[in-house]
Each structure stands twice: as structure tokens, then as C-alpha cells.
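User: Can you recover a sequence for this backbone? Please restate the input before giving your answer.

Assistant: Of course. Working from this structure:
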């Protein structure tokens, strides 16, 4: 299965996030899932991609050309797409992926996973979407989705396709449904 992962290009301040990122890559590689991601080698992105490759997995990188020229691209992708715009990057990642995971990250991570939720909602894809909620990082987002359902702006059926999991072990349990 091709799994898109959205995550930070920095390490963040919580060491547990780095550990869970490494564990996610190990699981993906060992289970022969392909990582589809932003193509960078910095921060959490580099940890994840390296971990997938070190565990016999494949990596599909989709990176902006302006970052490729600066040496920020991961060198060991089995497939690599250099694109001109963020829009192209998001579309290719979305089209290539069967499932989506958001690890802790910044505004870009939130933008990309939000777009997936909207696209899947309106195009009825029903692909699984996971928030790896390490140390409660996404608690406020979860609460906001619950509020959207309660206020009638998001149906409970649409929300059922979004999972908030606390660690990679819980993600693996939920992922087995697919």
C-alpha cells in the first residue's frame, strides 16, 4: 500500500516524536508499504525516509524543484518527482496514496492533511486518514472535528474515516482494518 506521510522538516522539541517517526518507518519498510512524502532529507522527514529504506521499503519523494537544487532532497528514493508548485506536490502525493498519516509538524503538515480530508469528503474516496497524536499533539484538532460534527458542519460518517492514535502500535492495530 502507498502511504502518504505528512510531517515536519525539523525535529521539534519532543524526543518521543523522533522515536515514533523511526518506528513508523521501520514498520512501513518491513511490511513493504511505500512511503509517499515531500521528498526531504531534513528533520523528521529524513528520519522517516531513512528508516523505511533501512528496512527494505521503498520511498516516493515529491519535492519542489527549488529545494532539490539546494541539496535538501532525500537521495535514496525509488521514485522521485521534482515539481514547480506546492499545488502539484500535493496533487501527486494525493493521487499516489491509498492512506494518509499526519505526524506532528507545522502549518504545512496541517494544510496538507486538511486538504486530504476535504478531497476525500467531496470525492467520496474514503481512504483512511490518521493523526499520530503523540503526547496529545493533535488533541485540539480532534476536539475541533468533534465540535464540527456536533454543530452539523461535518457528518459523523465522514468523521469515522479519521483516526487519532497515540503511537505507532495503535496505528498498526487500526491500520489492519485496511
Amino acid at each position: 500500500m502507498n502511504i502518504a506521510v505528512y510531517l515536519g522538516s525539523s525535529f521539534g522539541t519532543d524526543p518521543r516524536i523522533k522515536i515514533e517517526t523511526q518506528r513508523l518507518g521501520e514498520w512501513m519498510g518491513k511490511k513493504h508499504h511505500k512511503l509517499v512524502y515531500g521528498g526531504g532529507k531534513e528533520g523528521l522527514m529524513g528520519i522517516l525516509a531513512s528508516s523505511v529504506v533501512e528496512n527494505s521499503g521503498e520511498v516516493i519523494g515529491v519535492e519542489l524543484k527549488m529545494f532539490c537544487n539546494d541539496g535538501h532532497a532525500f537521495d535514496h528514493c525509488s521514485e522521485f518527482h521534482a515539481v514547480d508548485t506546492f499545488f502539484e506536490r500535493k496533487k501527486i502525493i494525493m493521487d499516489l496514496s491509498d492512506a494518509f498519516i499526519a505526524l506532528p509538524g507545522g502549518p504545512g503538515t496541517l494544510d496538507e492533511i486538511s486538504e486530504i480530508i476535504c478531497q476525500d469528503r467531496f470525492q467520496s474516496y474514503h481512504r483512511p486518514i490518521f493523526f499520530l497524536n503523540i503526547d496529545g499533539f493533535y488533541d485540539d484538532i480532534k476536539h475541533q472535528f468533534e465540535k464540527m460534527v456536533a454543530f452539523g458542519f461535518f457528518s459523523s460518517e465522514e468523521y469515522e474515516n479519521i483516526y487519532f492514535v497515540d503511537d505507532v502500535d495503535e496505528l498498526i492495530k487500526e491500520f489492519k482494518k485496511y
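That completes the design. Helices lie at 15-30, 43-54, 65-68, 86-96, 107-123, 139-150, 156-159, 168-175.
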